[in-house]
Amino acid sequence: MKNILLHLLLFSSTWCLAEASPLENKWASEVSAQDTSIVFSIDTVTAENGELVCLQLATENFEDIILMGMKILFDDEVLRFVNAAVITDLLPGFNDNSFSSPENNGSRDKFIISWIDGDLNGEALPASTEIFEMCFQVIGEQGEKSPLTFEDIEVANSNNELIPVEERNGLVCVDDNVSSGEEHFQNPLQFYPNPSNGRIEFNRPVKLLTIYDSYGRKVIDLDGDRQQVYDLGALSAGNYWLHTGTATLPLIIN
């Protein structure tokens, strides 16, 4: 099969955009539905120094595709790559072997994705399907930014034809005062004990609690009533990252 490479001019925002209104989202969906280009998009987020952030890559107009390859570039002085994970089971053969991390590909700032349909019949995904997520530790200082930009995208259909691609680059902005659904407190969020046998208590109630393992894989995701005490006894011994929406803290389970 003859490989077809498409090199597009990359453009990335220089600021973190506000969340789109429902009307704007509806308009964007209608435009995408009328467009035959396949769309790849990455989140835009604001995070604190030291926080673990996971950004999803979503797609639109993924129809009759047999080949997908791309590189995603980031600023390694702002973000440190931790891990990537597949978050859909709708793409046969797309798994952890489809990823090449900066450590494996010899770069510091490049994440590579490659996939081919084993039977070459062409695969389709529902609109707005999130394919995978990339997790980074934020190492930049307040006010710094890291675009996540696409490079060397290659997409082909079952007729071995090039598919036009619309790239929607991502962005991580570093801020010391992340805005979320929780109130802003001058006293930093803390919990104890750490190390813990599974029961932890915060110095104030939190609503959102997400736990990632040392490889950046999400293992617990709780979003409900505000609580100050959580029972994490289901976790096995090891090192974790605890994310509350306003802070990311290391956690040790013994």
How are the elements arranged and paired?
Blueprint: H1 22-34, E1 38-42, E2 44-47, E3 52-60, E4 65-73, E5 79-86, E6 99-100, H2 102-105, E7 110-116, E8 129-138, E9 145-157, E10 165-168, E11 170-174, E12 191-192, E13 199-213, E14 218-231, E15 238-243, E16 248-253
Parallel strand pairs: 1-10, 2-11
Antiparallel strand pairs: 1-3, 3-8, 4-7, 4-9, 5-8, 6-7, 9-11, 12-13, 13-14, 13-15, 15-16
- Level-2 CATH architecture of the largest domain: Sandwich
Measured between the Cα atoms of the first and last residue, the distance is: 52 Å
CATH fold field value of the largest domain: Immunoglobulin-like
Shape: elongated
Total of helices? 2
Radius of gyration: 20 Å
* Spatial strand sequence of the major β-sheet: 2-11-9-4-7-6
The CATH class of the largest domain turns out to be Mainly Beta
The main pleated sheet reads as: 6 strands, mixed
- State the low-pLDDT regions, or none: 1-15, 17-34, 178-186
Name the average pLDDT: 82
Provide the helix percentage: under 10%
Structural category is mainly beta
Residue share in β-strands = over 45%
Number of domains: 2
Describe the structure.
- The chain has helices at residues 22-34, 102-105; strands at 38-42, 44-47, 52-60, 65-73, 79-86, 99-100, 110-116, 129-138, 145-157, 165-168, 170-174, 191-192, 199-213, 218-231, 238-243, 248-253.
- The radius of gyration is 20 Å and the shape is elongated.
- Mean pLDDT is 82; it is low at 1-15, 17-34 and 178-186.
- Strands 2-11-9-4-7-6 form a six-stranded mixed sheet. It has a five-stranded mixed sheet with strand order 5-8-3-1-10, with no helix packed on it. Strands 12, 13, 14, 15 and 16 form a five-stranded antiparallel sheet that branches.
- The protein has two helices and 16 strands.
- The chain folds into two domains: 22-174, Immunoglobulin-like, CATH 2.60.40; 191-253, Immunoglobulin-like (Sandwich).
- It has 254 residues and is mostly beta strands.
